[in-house]
Design a protein that fits this description.
Blueprint lengths: L7 E6 L13 H18 L4 H4 L4 E12 L8 E11 L3 E9 L5 E13 L43 E4 L13 H9 L4 H6 L2 E8 L8 E10 L2 E8 L10 E10 L1
Protein backbone atom coordinates (compact mmCIF):
# COMPACT_ATOMS: atom_id res chain seq x y z
CA UNK A 1 0.00 0.00 0.00
CA UNK A 2 1.41 3.36 -1.01
CA UNK A 3 2.24 5.58 1.96
CA UNK A 4 0.39 8.90 2.09
CA UNK A 5 2.44 12.05 1.72
CA UNK A 6 1.54 15.48 3.00
CA UNK A 7 0.49 16.60 -0.48
CA UNK A 8 -1.51 14.94 -3.24
CA UNK A 9 -1.35 15.55 -6.98
CA UNK A 10 -4.32 15.04 -9.29
CA UNK A 11 -3.92 14.93 -13.07
CA UNK A 12 -6.37 16.41 -15.56
CA UNK A 13 -6.75 17.21 -19.25
CA UNK A 14 -8.34 20.36 -20.66
CA UNK A 15 -11.21 18.54 -22.34
CA UNK A 16 -13.61 20.07 -24.85
CA UNK A 17 -16.32 22.11 -23.10
CA UNK A 18 -13.99 22.95 -20.21
CA UNK A 19 -12.18 25.61 -22.25
CA UNK A 20 -13.32 29.20 -22.82
CA UNK A 21 -13.76 30.86 -26.21
CA UNK A 22 -10.00 31.62 -26.41
CA UNK A 23 -9.16 27.89 -26.26
CA UNK A 24 -7.68 27.78 -22.74
CA UNK A 25 -9.00 26.26 -19.52
CA UNK A 26 -11.91 28.37 -18.29
CA UNK A 27 -11.46 30.02 -14.89
CA UNK A 28 -14.59 28.46 -13.46
CA UNK A 29 -13.40 25.00 -14.54
CA UNK A 30 -10.04 25.58 -12.88
CA UNK A 31 -11.90 26.59 -9.74
CA UNK A 32 -13.86 23.34 -9.83
CA UNK A 33 -10.67 21.28 -10.19
CA UNK A 34 -9.06 23.15 -7.30
CA UNK A 35 -12.01 22.49 -5.00
CA UNK A 36 -12.24 18.86 -6.16
CA UNK A 37 -8.54 18.36 -5.38
CA UNK A 38 -9.07 19.82 -1.91
CA UNK A 39 -11.92 17.40 -1.26
CA UNK A 40 -10.07 14.32 -2.52
CA UNK A 41 -6.93 15.18 -0.53
CA UNK A 42 -8.94 15.71 2.66
CA UNK A 43 -10.92 12.47 2.17
CA UNK A 44 -7.79 10.41 1.59
CA UNK A 45 -6.11 11.89 4.66
CA UNK A 46 -9.04 11.33 7.02
CA UNK A 47 -10.55 14.80 7.44
CA UNK A 48 -12.79 15.16 4.40
CA UNK A 49 -16.54 15.33 3.96
CA UNK A 50 -16.79 11.53 4.00
CA UNK A 51 -15.51 11.49 7.56
CA UNK A 52 -17.09 14.73 8.79
CA UNK A 53 -20.63 14.68 7.39
CA UNK A 54 -21.70 11.77 9.68
CA UNK A 55 -20.57 14.01 12.56
CA UNK A 56 -22.71 16.92 11.32
CA UNK A 57 -19.64 18.92 10.30
CA UNK A 58 -18.69 20.36 6.92
CA UNK A 59 -15.94 22.45 5.37
CA UNK A 60 -16.92 25.93 4.18
CA UNK A 61 -14.73 27.95 1.81
CA UNK A 62 -13.95 31.39 3.22
CA UNK A 63 -11.44 32.81 0.75
CA UNK A 64 -9.73 31.76 -2.48
CA UNK A 65 -6.97 33.38 -4.51
CA UNK A 66 -5.89 32.00 -7.89
CA UNK A 67 -2.84 33.49 -9.62
CA UNK A 68 -1.97 32.20 -13.09
CA UNK A 69 0.97 33.11 -15.32
CA UNK A 70 -0.52 31.04 -18.13
CA UNK A 71 -3.51 28.75 -18.66
CA UNK A 72 -3.25 25.25 -20.16
CA UNK A 73 -4.80 24.98 -23.63
CA UNK A 74 -7.49 22.61 -24.83
CA UNK A 75 -6.29 18.96 -24.93
CA UNK A 76 -3.21 19.78 -22.86
CA UNK A 77 -2.53 17.93 -19.62
CA UNK A 78 -2.06 19.62 -16.26
CA UNK A 79 -2.07 18.65 -12.59
CA UNK A 80 -3.26 20.17 -9.34
CA UNK A 81 -0.99 19.56 -6.35
CA UNK A 82 -2.46 20.45 -2.93
CA UNK A 83 -1.38 20.54 0.70
CA UNK A 84 -2.24 22.12 4.07
CA UNK A 85 -0.18 25.22 4.88
CA UNK A 86 -1.52 26.36 8.29
CA UNK A 87 -4.08 25.54 10.95
CA UNK A 88 -5.49 28.26 13.20
CA UNK A 89 -8.15 27.95 15.89
CA UNK A 90 -11.14 28.06 13.52
CA UNK A 91 -9.51 28.32 10.07
CA UNK A 92 -7.07 26.37 7.95
CA UNK A 93 -5.11 27.43 4.88
CA UNK A 94 -4.66 25.13 1.90
CA UNK A 95 -2.28 25.68 -1.02
CA UNK A 96 -2.31 24.50 -4.62
CA UNK A 97 0.19 24.41 -7.46
CA UNK A 98 -1.19 24.11 -11.00
CA UNK A 99 1.51 22.23 -12.87
CA UNK A 100 2.60 21.37 -16.40
CA UNK A 101 3.61 17.77 -17.17
CA UNK A 102 7.26 18.78 -16.54
CA UNK A 103 6.26 20.04 -13.05
CA UNK A 104 6.83 23.71 -13.82
CA UNK A 105 3.99 25.88 -12.55
CA UNK A 106 1.22 27.48 -14.57
CA UNK A 107 0.25 29.21 -11.33
CA UNK A 108 -0.80 28.80 -7.74
CA UNK A 109 -3.88 29.06 -5.54
CA UNK A 110 -4.40 29.74 -1.85
CA UNK A 111 -7.60 28.99 0.05
CA UNK A 112 -8.90 29.48 3.59
CA UNK A 113 -11.53 27.16 5.07
CA UNK A 114 -13.65 26.93 8.20
CA UNK A 115 -15.13 23.75 9.64
CA UNK A 116 -18.69 24.37 10.79
CA UNK A 117 -21.25 22.50 12.85
CA UNK A 118 -24.14 21.87 10.45
CA UNK A 119 -26.78 22.25 13.18
CA UNK A 120 -25.56 25.43 14.82
CA UNK A 121 -23.77 26.88 11.72
CA UNK A 122 -20.98 27.86 14.13
CA UNK A 123 -17.25 27.22 13.48
CA UNK A 124 -15.57 24.24 15.09
CA UNK A 125 -12.36 24.72 17.04
CA UNK A 126 -9.81 22.81 14.95
CA UNK A 127 -7.45 22.54 17.91
CA UNK A 128 -9.98 20.35 19.73
CA UNK A 129 -10.45 17.71 17.04
CA UNK A 130 -9.80 14.10 18.16
CA UNK A 131 -6.25 12.75 17.89
CA UNK A 132 -4.85 16.17 17.13
CA UNK A 133 -6.97 16.63 14.03
CA UNK A 134 -4.88 16.85 10.86
CA UNK A 135 -1.91 18.91 12.09
CA UNK A 136 0.51 16.13 11.11
CA UNK A 137 -0.27 16.83 7.44
CA UNK A 138 0.89 20.46 7.51
CA UNK A 139 3.61 21.35 5.00
CA UNK A 140 4.76 24.94 5.47
CA UNK A 141 7.86 24.60 3.30
CA UNK A 142 6.43 24.06 -0.20
CA UNK A 143 6.28 27.11 -2.45
CA UNK A 144 2.93 28.82 -3.03
CA UNK A 145 3.47 32.10 -4.89
CA UNK A 146 0.27 34.01 -4.16
CA UNK A 147 0.15 37.64 -3.06
CA UNK A 148 -1.28 38.77 0.27
CA UNK A 149 -4.99 39.39 0.65
CA UNK A 150 -6.31 42.66 -0.70
CA UNK A 151 -8.74 44.98 1.04
CA UNK A 152 -11.76 45.05 -1.24
CA UNK A 153 -14.32 47.85 -0.83
CA UNK A 154 -16.77 48.61 -3.61
CA UNK A 155 -18.46 52.00 -3.26
CA UNK A 156 -20.45 51.81 -6.51
CA UNK A 157 -24.17 52.35 -5.85
CA UNK A 158 -25.60 51.21 -9.21
CA UNK A 159 -25.40 47.49 -9.95
CA UNK A 160 -23.96 46.28 -13.24
CA UNK A 161 -26.36 43.36 -13.19
CA UNK A 162 -29.10 41.86 -11.02
CA UNK A 163 -29.70 38.11 -11.14
CA UNK A 164 -31.90 35.56 -9.39
CA UNK A 165 -30.43 32.35 -8.00
CA UNK A 166 -31.96 29.36 -9.75
CA UNK A 167 -31.39 25.60 -10.19
CA UNK A 168 -27.94 25.78 -11.79
CA UNK A 169 -26.65 28.04 -9.00
CA UNK A 170 -27.50 25.76 -6.07
CA UNK A 171 -25.27 23.11 -4.47
CA UNK A 172 -26.03 20.10 -2.28
CA UNK A 173 -26.32 22.37 0.77
CA UNK A 174 -28.98 24.37 -1.11
CA UNK A 175 -26.81 27.46 -1.18
CA UNK A 176 -25.41 29.25 -4.22
CA UNK A 177 -22.17 27.38 -4.84
CA UNK A 178 -18.77 29.05 -4.67
CA UNK A 179 -17.94 28.67 -8.35
CA UNK A 180 -21.23 30.13 -9.61
CA UNK A 181 -20.34 33.45 -8.02
CA UNK A 182 -17.12 33.44 -10.04
CA UNK A 183 -19.02 32.67 -13.25
CA UNK A 184 -21.42 35.55 -12.68
CA UNK A 185 -18.50 37.90 -12.00
CA UNK A 186 -16.68 36.82 -15.16
CA UNK A 187 -19.82 37.66 -17.14
CA UNK A 188 -19.60 41.32 -16.09
CA UNK A 189 -16.80 41.97 -18.58
CA UNK A 190 -17.03 42.11 -22.39
CA UNK A 191 -15.54 39.45 -24.64
CA UNK A 192 -12.86 41.88 -25.83
CA UNK A 193 -11.50 42.10 -22.30
CA UNK A 194 -10.51 38.44 -22.33
CA UNK A 195 -8.91 38.52 -25.78
CA UNK A 196 -6.81 41.63 -25.27
CA UNK A 197 -6.05 41.43 -21.57
CA UNK A 198 -6.84 38.00 -20.10
CA UNK A 199 -7.44 37.50 -16.40
CA UNK A 200 -4.29 36.76 -14.41
CA UNK A 201 -5.38 36.89 -10.77
CA UNK A 202 -8.68 36.33 -9.00
CA UNK A 203 -9.16 36.85 -5.28
CA UNK A 204 -12.57 36.14 -3.77
CA UNK A 205 -13.83 36.33 -0.19
CA UNK A 206 -17.13 34.78 0.89
CA UNK A 207 -19.12 36.65 3.54
CA UNK A 208 -22.57 35.07 3.51
CA UNK A 209 -24.87 32.56 1.85
CA UNK A 210 -27.60 33.02 -0.74
CA UNK A 211 -30.42 30.56 -1.41
CA UNK A 212 -32.63 29.54 -4.31
CA UNK A 213 -34.80 32.47 -5.40
CA UNK A 214 -32.64 35.16 -3.79
CA UNK A 215 -31.95 38.29 -5.86
CA UNK A 216 -28.29 39.20 -6.17
CA UNK A 217 -26.94 42.56 -7.30
CA UNK A 218 -23.42 42.64 -8.78
CA UNK A 219 -21.39 45.82 -8.49
CA UNK A 220 -18.01 46.48 -10.09
CA UNK A 221 -15.50 49.28 -9.63
CA UNK A 222 -12.22 50.01 -11.38
CA UNK A 223 -9.43 50.39 -8.83
CA UNK A 224 -6.63 51.10 -11.31
CA UNK A 225 -5.92 50.15 -14.94
CA UNK A 226 -6.53 46.42 -15.27
CA UNK A 227 -7.74 45.94 -11.69
CA UNK A 228 -11.43 45.66 -10.82
CA UNK A 229 -13.20 45.04 -7.55
CA UNK A 230 -16.56 43.26 -7.67
CA UNK A 231 -19.12 42.81 -4.93
CA UNK A 232 -22.22 40.61 -4.80
CA UNK A 233 -24.99 41.85 -2.52
CA UNK A 234 -28.23 40.04 -1.72
CA UNK A 235 -31.37 42.15 -1.94
CA UNK A 236 -33.78 41.93 1.02
CA UNK A 237 -36.16 38.99 0.74
CA UNK A 238 -39.91 39.56 0.55
CA UNK A 239 -40.34 39.04 4.29
CA UNK A 240 -37.36 41.24 5.18
CA UNK A 241 -36.61 44.92 5.41
CA UNK A 242 -33.32 46.72 5.51
CA UNK A 243 -30.22 47.05 3.39
CA UNK A 244 -28.55 44.77 0.91
CA UNK A 245 -26.34 42.09 2.46
CA UNK A 246 -22.80 41.56 1.19
CA UNK A 247 -22.40 37.93 0.09
CA UNK A 248 -18.96 37.94 -1.52
CA UNK A 249 -16.32 40.31 -2.85
CA UNK A 250 -13.62 39.82 -5.44
CA UNK A 251 -10.58 41.52 -6.94
CA UNK A 252 -9.90 40.66 -10.58
CA UNK A 253 -6.55 41.59 -12.12
CA UNK A 254 -6.15 41.50 -15.89
CA UNK A 255 -2.85 41.36 -17.77
Amino acid sequence: MKQLGKSSKFEYTVEPFTEDFTGVLAWQELGKRILAAAGMHADSHGFGMKQLMPQNMAWVLSRMTISMNEMPKVNEKYAVDTWIRNIYRTFTDRCFAILRPDNTAYGYAYTTWALINMETRMPVNLENLPDGGFAKWIDDEKICQVSDNSRIRVKESEPSRVITAYYSDIDINRHVNSIRYIEHMLDLFPQEQYTGHPLANLEIAYHGEALYGDSLALYKQCVSPGIWDVEVRMLPREDETGREKKICSCRMTFK
